[in-house]
Design brief:
414 residues; alpha/beta; Rossmann fold; 6-stranded mixed β-sheet; 13 strands; 16% strand; binds glutamic acid
């Protein structure tokens, strides 16, 4: 059976020779620290009881408390959550955040729940995992189909259970409950900093570029807005129901408004097949939805010059090989989408200090952090002539290795 987790771990292999880490480090990273599976009973509005499966995985906490979002999606399963927690471990290390990696999820289609059912599910999730999270232990955040509202309920529930106000237990909260300014657009904004730093080098010039964005959720919308505002052309966008194409460029603000009003639409755009979007001849292809969107069978169709992994794990390992063979440059998720968790870190710092930052301060620090990590990974790629993904993993692995060695005792046995 194919496993996203096996695929995810395979990405580490080529990076090992550039990271110079101990055998202890690699052994530590072989298995997750803990995998929790819970059942969440929810009283539905019609009076019936439904039980949902929930997960929380802490992959590695050598560099700090584990950190990562919670997703609500019908396909959530242990293999997926474990992979996502593995990616968070490397993402946090790549960005030098004082965190390890974790992830959570509930197998549910949130669109089928009323707001009250969703609240009971969110609070029920925290009832089930409360003993395993905490501001110094494991810190959840939003992910696919969870948002500020859900994070607010979760933080409130955790505070009720522990009988103290604990804003630092969850990030991505509403600003009125201790959330950070700029967290809502941070993933897309961070991706934009990576693109504006690297795309001129990869595409020989400043554009204007054409972009196709698969997935018009939180990250896809914020990135589309940045591209649009900077004068580039977003020629295609899609969500789970439709894919739209306009050679002249989609009116991004109008498409966002239509999506907020209920359905993704754009004047002058024609509907295309979801797979067609991935095969468009564009400068930037930005898969921004779920993992494994580009796989062995459709990777050969990709005609974009560069591919930016705004989603977690949108390109399988087999697809990576095809893309490399076809000279499509892939910029990896653990760098491209790290803006979200970076501003989550800022939120956690603000909560601990009790001192909120201005929007400008968040913006400036995010930019500085994203550009620094991008340049470090780019230099490693140049130095060894390796793919950016290998460079990103090597960069992160070095940092994890230093932390493992710093607390380890392997040297005493030599
Ligand atoms: N879910 C986001 C990610 O995959 C954010 C995680 C966080 O803020 O902790 O990076």
């Amino acid at each position: 059976m194919s496993s996203t987790f096996t695929d995810a771990k395979g990405r580490l292999e080529p990076a090992i020779e550039y990271a110079d880490v101990s055998a202890d480090t690699l052994e530590r990273l072989r298995l997750p620290k803990s995998v929790l599976k819970v059942s969440i009973p929810v009283r539905m509005d019609d009076g019936s009881l439904k039980v949902f499966a929930g997960y929380r995985v802490r992959y590695d906490d050598t560099r700090g408390p584990t950190k990562g979002g919670i997703r609500f999606h019908p396909d959530v399963n242990a293999d997926e959550v474990q992979s996502l927690a593995f990616w968070m471990t490397f993402k946090c290390a790549a960005l030098d955040l004082p965190f390890g990696g974790g992830k959570g999820g509930v197998a549910v289609d949130p669109k089928e729940l009323s707001t009250h059912e969703l609240e009971r599910l969110s609070r029920g999730y925290i009832d089930a995992v409360a003993d395993f999270i905490g501001p110094n232990v494991d810190i959840p955040a939003p992910d696919v189909a969870t948002n500020q509202l859900v994070m607010g309920w979760m933080m409130d529930q955790y505070s009720t259970i522990t009988r103290r106000i604990e804003p630092g237990v969850i990030t991505g909260k509403p600003v009125a409950m201790g959330g950070s300014l700029g967290r809502d657009t941070a993933t897309g904004d961070g991706a934009w900093h990576v693109i504006r730093t690297l795309a001129p080098r990869l595409l020989d010039g400043d554009g204007p570029w054409t972009a196709a964005i698969q997935g018009f959720g939180n990250a896809g919308q914020a990135l589309a807005t940045q591209l649009h505002n900077a004068g580039h052309k977003v020629v295609a966008v899609s969500d789970s129901k439709t894919a739209l194409y306009n050679e002249e460029g989609i009116d991004v603000p109008a498409a966002r408004q239509a999506k907020a009003d209920g359905a993704l639409e754009a004047d002058g755009a024609k509907e295309i097949d979801a797979e067609e979007l991935l095969a468009l001849d564009v400068d930037l292809l930005c898969p921004s939805a779920l993992e494994n969107a580009i796989h062995e069978d459709n990777a050969g169709d990709v005609r974009a010059r560069t591919l930016w992994e705004v989603a977690n794990g949108p390109v399988t390992a087999a697809a990576d090989d095809v893309l490399i063979g076809n000279d499509v440059i892939v910029v990896p998720d653990i760098l491209v989408n790290a803006g979200g968790v970076t501003v989550s870190w800022f939120e956690w710092v603000q909560n601990r200090a009790g001192l909120p930052w201005s929007a400008d301060e968040v913006r400036e620090r995010l930019e500085e952090h994203m550009v620094e990590a991008t340049e470090a990974i780019w230099s490693l790629r140049d130095e060894h002539d390796i793919p950016l993904r290998t460079a990103a993993y090597a960069h992160a692995l070095r940092r994890i290795g230093e932390a493992v060695d710093a607390r380890g005792s392997a040297g005493d046995y030599k």
